[in-house]
Amino acid sequence: MKVSFIGLGIMGMGMALNLADGEKDGEFRYLACDADHKALEQFKEKGIKTTTNIADTVDSDYIFLCLPNLEIVKEAILGENGLLQHLKPGQTIVDFSTISYIGATEIAETCKAKGIEFLDCPISGQRAKSMEGTLSIMCGGDEEVFNTIKPMLDRMGEQVIYMGENGSGQLTKVINNCALNICAASFSELMPVGVKLGLDAEKLGDVLMTATGSSFASQTLIPKVLEGDFEHGFSLDKAYKDMESIFEVLVKYEIPLPTLNGTMQTYQLALQSGQRDYYKQAMIRFYEDLLGVKVRKEGFE
């Protein structure tokens, strides 16, 4: 059996390295693929076969992808020189990329028409978790195929869940990400109000991180706000695609979600005010400027 992994970026690098251990254990032959020669160096050092040409992966039983966006995924699979032009019935594509729910279902339908299995398996977790093999992986597609590849997925993720038919993985991830967005937008709007009216930013942050209004977003992002840290490997601009993705679904199925709609407006205000290169907690900077305050701990310059 041959397995290939295409896309050795921030998240794909660790995942591909962990999956490569399957070759060391004698489970399959392995090929790592990326257009960037530098991304292949770690694999070459470990004696793992590499290529810069995705055409070299088309004889694989299972092809894993971790690519930046829907356009690149479509080009890699459906393009003029894409995988689907060369694959044969029975082969499987597993996509870890974060793309839209509708995009995933359309790709799956096209693949299925040619006898190719397609699973959408977006990931959740930061780069450190991808290196550790402790990501959360949410999977949509044929359940029998999922069960077949789960041992490989277990090399990359700590929580690997089958969510249902094609598109279910992407739908799960976008719902999770939008819930995070809502929580981040809520403290971004409210903390500047408290500071404007005289509350101590650090004490207010302590309450929002521990009391009933706490959330993963508040616990992880408020400490960064208090220290003036808005940098991150994943920008607000890129994260906005989750909002775009869920709104495609809401428009198609005519579903009104006022809270989510309000969060999207907060996102847009932050993007329009120059925060697009920073992370989600940078939404607070729009409201800081609006109210003329800084939500920082004492002594911060």
Automatic annotation (TrEMBL):
Entries under Pfam families matching the protein: NAD_binding_11 (PF14833), NAD_binding_2 (PF03446)
Residues covered by the 6-phosphogluconate dehydrogenase NADP-binding domain: 2-164
Keywords, comma-separated and alphabetical: NAD, Oxidoreductase
Gene Ontology biological process terms from the UniProt entry: organic acid catabolic process
Any one Gene Ontology molecular-function term assigned to this protein's record: NADP binding
Stated family: Belongs to the HIBADH-related family.
Descriptive protein name: NAD(P)-dependent oxidoreductase
Organism: Salibacterium salarium
